[in-house]
Every structure is written in structure tokens, then in C-alpha cells.
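Quick entry, no commentary yet.
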Amino acid sequence: MNFARRPIRKRLLLALATLPFFGVVAAFGIAPDTTTDSIVKETIVQAVDLPEIELTDNGAFDFWREERIARGDTLPDLLGRMGVGPDDTRSFMETARQTPTLGRLLPGRTVLGRVTSSGRLMLFRYMASEDTLITVSRSGETFKAEEQAIQAEARPIMRSGTIQGSLFGATDAADIPDRIASAMAEAFSGDIDFHRDLRRGDHFSVIYEAFYHEGRLIRSGRLLAAEFTNQGKTYQAIHFQDPDGREGYYTADGQSLKRAFLKSPMPFDRISSGFTSARFHPVLQVWRSHKGVDYAAPTGTPVRAVADAVVGFAGKKGGYGNLVILNHNRPYSTAYGHLSRFASGIRPGSRISQGQVIGYVGCTGLCSGPHLHYEFRVNGEQRNPLAMKLPTSMPLEARYRAQFAAHAQPLAARLEMLRNTNLARFE
């Protein structure tokens, strides 16, 4: 829009209209009985040259997106998950081809991008190692890459939010990285079923590490503490690493939040079919029992083990398609069917840790669309995992309790402050 030839009278009206926004209020008055008929009135119109205003995507709707690099990920995969448009992806890849380090993506690390609502990539950061940062910044319609050695500064960040719809929607609104949101969901997964238990008005607070270099955010670190109020009941999680290197999340009184079994093999996806004695099978077109829980999710979504286990079976099996059976402490076992593929190293006899990815959602065997078929078995018999009271785990060792209490007290105090002040963000 070009304001260069707008009449000055209209510009003055515009200026007066905007004065209150700058904290200025002016009052004008005329004394009673003042005669104004004799005043000569003259209208002056004068063109005033003003600088042109360039309408650009100036960051009013920017979002910071953080993505964890999975095995097999490529740069276009990561940019796509961040919401970067195809034109910027092509331009970015032209720059990436001239920066070999940028092409060496290490699974487990994260990338950080500032992306506008229209899909324009404004900034991209990748910690190629603990002390090497690659920054790709926008320069017009192209990108420029810079690699530098850094020493990042860790800062604690505090955020709060309220559930209006989904967990990720609420954490996005509170400017909480997806990585931290996932860590919070993981920490509380033994107490809260994020498929079924969330309610509008549920409240949460988090304290987490963020790493900065020269005042710029580089990446998020660990979730240090969290609090979640679900349906009126409040849960707390405090991270603690003992002198032997074992780490986990605990309640304020030292009870471990790591349950023997997670409530779900996937934190956030929709239950499409529950455990029932009579269900109309969408493929066979007959009524039959459904001795498991189906989680609808896109093909390729990671599936995790709900508990420490040994792989009992990994292969094709009838209507299950690609199936993994995990044997836990007797008498428990779990089954994961319709997988598109198995995770690396998943073979009979392999030892698996709780939360480890064992495969990926697919539609093999008898199925009408991509989903995970999950079964919980006791002595080989299928039980409804959503209705069972699952075994709990052991508390913190007594010899570490004093050290934990000293560590937990300031974090618990910050969570209380967040709860009482209802801050959306604080750093």
C-alpha cells in the first residue's frame, strides 16, 4: 500500500486516532457563548511524501518448531514436519548441498526452526555436536549457512498452560517445545491416559532447560520438573539423577513415576476400537470379539514397548500381519500387530527397555487402515489394558533420599509459584 499522496487532512486524523496508543491524551475546548461565525475558514490540502510500507511476512505469526531426528530422516523430512513450504525447502537444499556437515544428521539430536504461518523458513539451527552450531538464515529468497564453535549457556525456563482441546495445542499456545511436551506426557503416562483422561480446563506447568548462545535460543534440554492437574487431581514429576548415573522422574516424596507398565504404547494417538466381546470386523464383515485396543495413527508412527522385556516373537503371523510379542516379568506379555516394519535390532531374544521403539504403525495383515493393534496378556490370555490396575515400580533408594530432597525442594517451590501466579511464560 502506498501512502505517499494521501491528503494531509486524512493523515492528521490518522495521527490523532493513534495518539492514545502512545500514552498521549489531549483535550480541546471552547469557552461557552464564544462566537465562531466570524472566523475565516480555509481548507488546505497538501501532499506529504512518506516512506512506502513494505508488506512482508514479518514474524507476527512465527512459530519455533523443534524436531527430533529419527533414524532414516532427511532434511526434507524435518522441514516438512516443521511446516516449511516446498519453495523454501528447495532453496534450503541448494544451500545444504554446499554444507556437508548439515547433511550428516545424527539420530537423537534435534533441529530448531522459526517458521511462519505461511510456511516461510526464517531461521534453522542444528547442533551438529555438543560445541558446533550450524545456523541457516534467510537472505531474501535464498539461504546462507554458517558453522561455528560455541559454548552454550543453560537456563531454566518456566511455562504454564491450560488444556482447551489437545495437549499439543495447549503446549504450542504456551510456547513449549514439542520435545518437552512429549517428555511431560511420558513422565505422567503411568497416571494419566492422554487418549482418554484429558479435560478442558486441566492445567500444567513445566520447568525445563534451554540452551542459549549469545542470547539466542539453540535447543531445549531436559524436562527438570512438571506439574499436571487432571480432573481436579494434581501430579508432580521431578527429574533426578543419582550418583550411579541412573535417572528418572519422581514425586516430591521420592516415589518413582516409572511404572512397570505404561498405559499406552503411543502417547497421543486416537483409539479407534476398544476391547470388546462383539465387534463388526471391517475386513471380514462378521461379528467377532476384539481382544485388544486399536490405536489409529499414520503409517510410520513409532510404537514403543510398554515395559522392559525380552522379544518373544518378531515376524509375520496371520491376520496380525507384522507382529511383535514381548515377554515381561511373568505372567505378563504384550503384542503389537499390523506393523509396517520392525525397528532395528528387534529379533527374538533381544532385550528391550520400557519406551524403546520396537516398530512402526502400518496396515499389514487383516486391517482396513493404518493402526496399531495392541494386546495385553496375562498367562497368555488377553485382558483389557484400559480397565486393569497395572503393577507399580519401586521408590527411590533410601541412601539417595536426602540428596533428592535437597534437589527437589527448589524445583517444587517454582512449581508452586507457577501454580499460584498462573504464569503463561517466565524465563
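second:
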Amino acid sequence: MPPDRLALVGTGLIGASVGLAAKRIGLREVVGWDADGDSLGLAAERGAVDAAAGSLEEAVEGAELVLVATPVASLQETVRAVLAAGSGPTVSDVGSTKGGLCGSVAERGRFIGGHPVCGSEARGPEHASAELFEGATWFLTPVAETEPERYKLLHGFVASLGAIPVAIDPAAHDRLMAVTSHLPHALANLILNHAGSVRVNGHEPLATAGGSLRDMTRVAGANPRIWIDIFLDNAEELRSSLAEHRRRVEDLERALAAGDAGWLARWIGEAAVNRRTLLDEAYRDVGALQRVRVHVPDRPGVLSGITQALGAEQINIEDFELQHMSPERGGTLSVLVSGEDEARRAAALLEAQGYSVIVSPAFEDE
């Protein structure tokens, strides 16, 4: 059963999204508190929370569950303040690192660390969505001292929002995040800064970059207010992942120096298998997916017109991506649909509207 009264401490993107999702499932009372009055006011205007006018202590009074959704740098201090405010509520958080926080909490019986894996480049309550957690993994970090009824309450609440609760050890969580999130962010910055710092016979790499560089660096330059704290809070595990990455780069360097085509073939093949595993988690039937590539002009309304046209013909879009080249050249819209017949139907519809279309298996190289 979800709690009757939820208190949210922090009303940014994640906090406000929790509030919207909680109200969608019919929670009787969702109270929000934030040191940033503008964020709190906007979250209240969105209908995500009922703004608490008093102190943090007053905001959490009477709550069954308190969710702390402040930046990583202030999580430990805020969680301790919430726990000190009263002995009643179960307390959790939504931070992306868990080891330091869980290790610093004295009241381990009623604090359970949490981390919904549903990131977005956007931030702030104006971008909040009740659907943000649908199908998302939400890590929970119970420990030996965790009171079972409190874990049951939190687990049930997370599941009621549409997320998938997954129990994990706090240290294991941080190792996992270092490999799957923090290392990719660090490498994206490294790759883009490398490309931006060199010139090749007078040519600027960033001016002539293709899709590969854009794809690999989509998360580069992400909000430093968030990512500096994450990198530093998980520095040990990130350094360990970087060291392992460095070893693998050295293996590649040795193969290139030796002209070892066999090693390279095995290396690429291993990556193809791992890529397919990743895609199998994201799509119902990867093998059936077809990519419909459409050259589109840089003009308002083009994308909405295409998606509406396909929707009107009951052609389901599994995924899509726009690669923009320039205002003059427009870009390429890649629409994924399931099945060759559906792809051909989509292509015929778009060609009839004057677009140039190419259809191919979505992941033919995998």
C-alpha cells in the first residue's frame, strides 16, 4: 500500500516528477519543501506538490515516507536533518551515488537509499513528468539493519509509480554506476575535448565531424553543478573504472602496433555481442526492427507532420532520432518500426509526401 502522506524534500525534476506520479496514483497528500523557493513555487504551480510554508521539520511532520531529492553534494546533510526531525517516517533519497551516503547515516533501520535510473538532460520542475519512472529501474539499498516493514512500504511505493524496484548493496551500486553511467560521461567529455583541442593540417575536427562523434558525445558537457558532485562522490569507483578502461586501450594499442587482425576481429565481435545484449533489453524484437531514414528540411512542423502522418495510418514508431547537419542541409530523421511490411508502408506514405526515404534493417551491423 502506498503511504497516505508523502513529503518531498527537493522539488527539481526528479522530486516534482515523483510528486506528479504520486498524485496520479491517488496519494492523499504530497507535501513539498525546498530551500529554493522558486523551484518549490513552480512545482506547486505544476500541481506536483502542496507547498510547505514552514521549516523542513514542519514539512516532514506526520509523513509516512520522506523522499530527499536534493543535489548529491547536499544529500548527506539533508538526510541527517530529515532523520533528526522525527522518529516516525521512513526516509529514502534519489541520489546517483550510495556508498558515502548510506555509510554516513546512523539510523540505518529507517533510512533506505534509493536511485531511480531515469536520467534526463533537462532539469527543474518545469520539465517534470508523471511518466518519468514508467518501466525504469529504481535501485534500493537495504542493509542488515533495515526494518522490513519500512522496506516493504518503500518498495510498494516505487512499484506503484510504474518503476521496477531492484535491491542492491550500496557499494555494488556505486561500482555499477561507475561502469554504466559515470565512466561514459567522463569519456564523452574526454573525447569531445580531445577533438576540440587539435587541428589537422588546418582543419578543425568539430567542423567536419560526422554522426559517430555526435553519438558518442551526446552526454558531454552535462550540467557541471550535478556532475562535478557525482564524479567526486564516486571518485574511487570511477578511478577504478578508468584504470580498467586504460588497460583495455593499451590492449588495443598493442594489437594495432602488431597488425593483429585476428585480435581486432575478436574484439569487434565481442562488442557486437555486447551491443546486441544491450539492444535486447531496450526493444521487444531487435531483429524485426527496420530503420526508415528520411531526409528532412530544417523547417518548423516537419517532425510533427511526419509522426502524425504515420500515427494516422496506425504505424507504430518504436524509436526515432534526428541527426541535424545544418540549417541549409536539414538533417536525417531515423524512424524505427517493427517489420518489413510496416517499414515499406511508412516509406510509401512519406515518399508520397515528397520525402527521400531509405529502408534498411535497424541494426544490421549488430
